[in-house]
Amino acid sequence: MNSKKYVKAFCNSEDIKYDDVVKILSDKTRKNYTYQSLNGKLNRNTFTYEEACILADALGYNLIPVKRK
After folding, report:
1. What's the predicted TM-score (pTM) here?
2. Low-confidence ranges of the chain (pLDDT < 70)
């Protein structure tokens, strides 16, 4: 699963939009995110693990690597 699907899953489970994700990332990182920059990162699959952790933390989730069985 690529980062776009993960972010989309977060958005669906929390009933938020990309604009909310942009605000969360901008507030937490103090970098200037826009809808276009977020969408570009997701389409290019350059959304970082750090960004995913920030988003997950803000939404009350943990990203924990789990070994497959």
Report:
1. 0.84
2. 1
CB-based contacts of 23-27 (< 8 A; 24+ apart in sequence): 24/54, 24/55, 24/58, 24/59, 25/51, 25/54, 25/55
CA–CA separation, 13 vs 69, rounded Å? 26
Rounded Cα gap, residues 26 and 33, in angstroms: 5
H helical segments located in 1-69: 3-14, 18-29, 35-44, 49-58
Give per-residue pLDDT as tens, 22-36.
999 999 999 999 999
